Amino acid sequence: MLKKLIFQVEYQGINRIEQEILFSLISDKLIAIGCLSVSNITGDEELRQPIQNLEVIVDEKIHNNQVRKCFDSLAKITNLDELRLINSTNWVESYKDSVTPIVIGNSFFIAPDWIKVPKNNKKLSVIRINPGMAFGTGLHPTTQMCLQLISSLPLSNKNVIDLGCGSGILGIACAKRGAKSITFIDNDYVALGITRENIIKNSCQGVNHKILSTLTKNSKKADYIFANILLNPLKNMAKTIKSKVKSKGQVFLSGILIDQVENLLRSYEEHAEKKLVKIVELHMKQWACVQITFR
Hints:
Elements (H helix, E strand, L loop, with lengths): L1 E10 L4 H17 L4 E4 L10 E9 L4 H12 L4 E10 L1 H8 L3 E3 L3 E4 L13 E4 L12 H10 L8 E5 L5 H8 L4 E5 L3 H13 L6 E5 L9 E7 L2 H6 L1 H6 L1 E13 L3 H10 L5 E9 L2 E8 L1
Helix pairs in contact: 1-2, 4-5
């Protein structure tokens, strides 16, 4: 179990550069005794005031006094005047208490492992995604818009590409809705590892799937391609994405701002032998998700 300690520290007669050196020294010493991280959370980014708040994440096995003794030893060799513990919380439990499940229409219940599914849940497909290093917990508007569109698609026996899969949440959602095969693609190997874990966690390993680092020439064409990335990568991959969607298939582009939609679609029109047709354009906050096809 982890806990968070916040210390208020006062320095005397040292300038900004010396404060930064002292912060590095404090960090090194605290990490050496077993603290997991040390962060400067002062509200004054330029460190003009000789007061800093230091956030220290430690295992609960490390007693607060160990951290205090570390500061005391530093005070003997620096101008560290005073140390006050102003907050101590069970960091993990506080975070868990702040997380709420995400419900997408009548289709998906998305939550980390520690949140229980309501007993009266019968219709919603449960997707377990824990917060981590890969994008796609379901919180971001672009992910939610893609999930809304997935919930309305006829996915039975369809082939899907989840391009820039992150946590794999979109491909997993398609699998839950009956997709025949899913190709998960991401150039981040950490994301691919997390996707693999989430496929197993959500009991989707029985669905025909591949996990790749790039969209290759040998990749099968898909009925649906989801690409929730950013404007420039989406523009750069326009030709490749167009070549991998089946005739009458559909492409879902997100990760873009509302005022970037027309710019993006021009890139896809340039590579379209057939007319580009915009089926749906969703907005959430400042973000957009566009569903297109070619006829």
